[in-house]
Amino acid sequence: MACSPEEIERKRCEALERRNARLSTVAGINQQPSTSKPLQPLNSGLGLNRSLSSGSQSTLGSFLNKSHENLDLKRKTNSYPQSEPPSKLIKQINNTSIGLVNNKISPINPTKFFHQEQQIKGTVSMVSLTRFEVDIKYCEPFIKYCKTLKTSMYDQKSKLWSFDITEYKDFMNGLKNVPMVEITPLPQYVYRVFKENANPKPQKAEPDLSRIDPKLMETLMPFQREGILFGINKNGRCMIADDMGLGKTIQALGIAHYYEADWPLLIIAPSSLTHQWFQSILEFLPSVLVHEIVIYTSKLYLDNNKVTITSYDLLVKNIGVFSGKRFGTIIVDESHTIKTLTAKKTEAVKKMIDQSNHIILLTGTPALSRPIELYSQISLIVPNFLTMHNYGVRYCNAEQTKFGWNYKGSSKATELQLLLKLVCCIRRLKADVLSQLPSKLRQVIMLDPNLIDKGTEEMKEAYQKCSQNKGNLHTTIIQCFNESSSQRIKAVCNYLEEVLENQQKFIVFAHHKCILDAITDLMIKSKVKFIRIDGSTRPEDRKAMVDRFQTQKNIMVAILSITAANAGITLTAAKLCIFAELYWNPGILCQAEDRIHRIGQNESVVIKYLIAEKTVDDHLWPLLRTKLDFLNKAGLNQDFSLDSADISKQVISESSDSKQGKIDEYFKMSSSNFKTDNALADKVNLMLDEDDEDLASIDLDAFQ
């Protein structure tokens, strides 16, 4: 149906009004209801309009006049209310017409178009007891700023700037004026510890050590006396992390006896070491009577003894009994056992420590594999320490995954070492007291490959089974490990026969029962007198066996389990230690080594590792080296250098052909000769990285 010119004009005006309303909404303007009069046609100055008899305009004249009116209307609707101040109008205009409109980038504004310049991020960490360092990429404004500070120093090697801790606050405040730089500061707790250490302190009088039993004081070496003073200066809340064999037991007893007024004393130790603690107290603290010492044996109550000795397992099972009595002083031996916060052992120990004034932790391996394992120990003796998350982010290279936070990494190892030294930890390596200890020499013996060829094919079948198994992966991987160890029996026994010909005392470690049994059979066959200590040996029998080995010259060999006899015994009568097989934890191996390399050893000792090519050993050696890297950087190293070990090749058919070299040569050789698919290698490495607790439920002997 045709519309008259007037109707067309009316509809066009309505459409324009609707369009203007939409524009006002987009611009964020609160449009007021229109009060303008209906549009009236204007006479054109060009004389193009002609009057009609009805007074209406021609179509052309109406179009031109309405176009001018529409333009004027558009200008009015895009204007802002007069009540708004000019400054606000300008700001609104910049935000709407020049910046982002409908989330689109405007090329008119260069800041929005090219984006803002990225911040250069850096982090602060302590590199000594008095200086902090800034790890940051090259930044000219930052360099100019560093040169203005009094204590700034530039390290040509690391290409980083460092400053004195006394200038830390000025440094952080001045960064506000440095463009494009964002620095992660030190945690407040960390800054406070280092700042207090840098402040001059009044000279303190040395503690009166006459309160300690004279018998113990007479036997102390200088570094042991220093350890006791350290513990007393920390009010009896400390971690003694000396290397194995440096006398942590005597230092702990010295600190504890200094605080005898705060007894009763509780000693928590692995079950295999409880009797040794009993003997040590009798030897070094004769002022404590024998009837005042008790080894707890699962009673329903605790006697009023001055000293109570218990194992971790008994403490967990009888925590209700123990928590009912307050112990003013507690010694926790092998404290790395409580490396997991949620473990029952940790919870039980924490419950006892919460009631105590003095806590002494002892460990020869303060960081077995991951720095997060230190946290549960530190938090026991330093209640106001960093939270677990803050500790994990700073020192464990924490990563957030879909399953939560992963704290299994490591970062800022130097700062962590320095912090622990100031807060609670003292650690000396054998190298630090070398003048008082004999040297240690390591050797790697490559077993005769002809004696392990038969086992290689069987081992490959086990590897194949491992790669296909998706159910119980741990069990299958352990089977691979067992298969590898069982195939080395002939080569190991062959080598030990050669060692027996030298008629010298030695100790030999193994992990699997099949190898321990084979070595035992060899000694019986060779009519050699020996002792054997493994997981089935009762604690009271261990000391008697050790005493026999130490005092009787005809006892030539000590056959020991790596995990059951790696701590708490002294076998310095031997000068040779042989590992018939490896273990995936370097701390355990180092502890085992120190059964002969301890105080009381007057001669140099030799440590020999028997290695079988094309077995799990090809994975174990590189893994052990990798795990030691962080410990060395953190200052928690085990004094356990694989690189310095010499390699000798066992030869059966030739008597004089021996090959010497460095362990790096073996790494290169093993990596090229031993081929597996990547998936299988990953699974084997996964097993090697497992903690002992994760594999404790698997019966190793079931695979024999």
From TrEMBL:
| SMART domains for the chain | DEXDc, HELICc
Compositionally biased intervals (Polar residues): 27-38
Give the record's keywords alphabetically. Answer: Hydrolase, Nucleus
Q: Which Gene3D superfamilies match?
A: P-loop containing nucleotide triphosphate hydrolases, Tandem AAA-ATPase domain
UniProt-annotated location(s): Nucleus
Matching entries from SUPFAM superfamilies are given as: P-loop containing nucleoside triphosphate hydrolases
* PROSITE patterns registered for this protein in UniProt: HARP, HELICASE_ATP_BIND_1, HELICASE_CTER
A Pfam family matched in the record: HARP
Family (UniProt): Belongs to the SNF2/RAD54 helicase family. SMARCAL1 subfamily.
Show the stretches that span the lipid bilayer. none
Helicase ATP-binding domain spans which residues? Answer: 229-384
**What is the originating organism of this protein?**
Cotesia congregata (Parasitoid wasp)
| GO CC field | nuclear replication fork
Outline the segment boundaries, as ranges, of region: Disordered.
25-60
Query: Does the record's keyword annotation contain Iron?
Result: no
Q: Where is the composition biased (Low complexity)?
A: 42-60
The keyword Cytoplasm is annotated on this UniProt entry:
no
Output the Gene Ontology terms for molecular function.
ATP binding; hydrolase activity
Q: Which GO terms describe its biological process?
A: DNA repair; replication fork processing
Among InterPro entries, the record links this protein to: HARP_dom, Helicase_ATP-bd, Helicase_C-like, P-loop_NTPase, SNF2-like_sf, SNF2/RAD54-like_C, SNF2_N
Which residue range or ranges hold the Helicase C-terminal domain?
495-648
Q: Give coiled-coil spans as residue ranges.
A: none
Q: Where is each HARP domain found?
A: 109-187
Listed name of the protein: Similar to smarcal1: SWI/SNF-related matrix-associated actin-dependent regulator of chromatin subfamily A-like protein 1 (Danio rerio)
